[in-house]
Amino acid sequence: MTALTCRLWWASPDDASPALLDLLDPEERERHARFRARADRDRYLVAHALARLALAREAGCEPAEVAFTLHCRSCERRPDPRPEPHGKPRPAGAAAGLEISISHSGERVLLALAHGVAVGADVEQVSADRDTDGLVDYCLSPAERGDLDRVPGDRRTEGFFGYWARKEALLKATGDGLSGGLAAVGVSGPFEPAGVLAWDSPDAPEHVRLTDLDAGPGYRAALAALTPAPLTTDTGDTAALLGAVRR
Ligand SMILES: CC(C)(COP(=O)(O)OP(=O)(O)OC[C@H]1O[C@@H](n2cnc3c(N)ncnc32)[C@H](O)[C@@H]1OP(=O)(O)O)[C@@H](O)C(=O)NCCC(=O)NCCS
Ligand SMILES: [Zn+2]
């Protein structure tokens, strides 16, 4: 079976520049302006500029010809969906047929791009300040909680975010997001090779691949793809892509 190659584009909120704003569409510019914290604004700007540039490069079109539709799988099943567009961005316009996933945390912005296969990416800053104790019950099954308890204390926070990144990557691949239920998705221990062990939902995908990504010290990241094919990655040259935009 031919492997699926997913291209990863890594960037930083420090890559933000006024020129990137020109790449955003009016809805994106409006959302960008609504963020109060500069760090959030910059992560959003870099992620969305990067998405347009990478998709345009892949589709052989201009960034302005790239459009997105947003899909919330949880709303699609509900009688009272939230009226405004939200959820997983799906490339449209000249970039139709490509799939992406966006994630940002701390100093990392991540875009995953694949042809014709839904992907989910998640990067998480390993943050000792966050009250992970309160999140453990929400995120982990009883068996996973037991496994995390056996991780040495100084690696436990990292282990928790390892679980979180893997599970969220899976739920972003399907488009469920957190409403798909992190605890319903069972993954291997955070210091073991990544694998899906269980998915307690009637809407679980038939085929899925999961791998960890190296986001550097202080971060955990993962990539999921809804495919039976082996999953491989390569890395795009973000500096060249963003550098070509006039500053
Ligand atoms: C949206 C969500 C998946 C984001 O996760 P996060 O760790 O906070 O943030 P990340 O940076 O990793 O991911 C954010 C990106 O995920 C994408 N995204 C949003 N909803 C998504 C979904 N349902 N599936 C896949 N991707 C989604 C967006 O591109 C977003 O980036 P953007 O806001 O810059 O466009 C998660 O916060 C969530 O599911 N929240 C609950 C939302 C909710 O209530 N959903 C039900 C609404 S009716
Ligand atoms: Zn929704």
Automatic annotation (TrEMBL):
Q: InterPro entries attached here?
A: 4-PPantetheinyl_Trfase_dom, 4-PPantetheinyl_Trfase_dom_sf, P-Pant_transferase_sf
Q: Which organism is it from?
A: Streptomonospora arabica
Pfam families recorded for this chain?
ACPS (PF01648)
> What keywords is this UniProt entry annotated with?
Transferase
Specify the 4'-phosphopantetheinyl transferase domain's residue ranges.
118-223
Query: In Gene Ontology terms, what is one molecular function of this protein?
Result: transferase activity
Instruction: Name the family.
Output: Belongs to the P-Pant transferase superfamily. Gsp/Sfp/HetI/AcpT family.
User: Protein name, please?
Assistant: 4'-phosphopantetheinyl transferase family protein
Q: Which domain of life is it from?
A: Bacteria
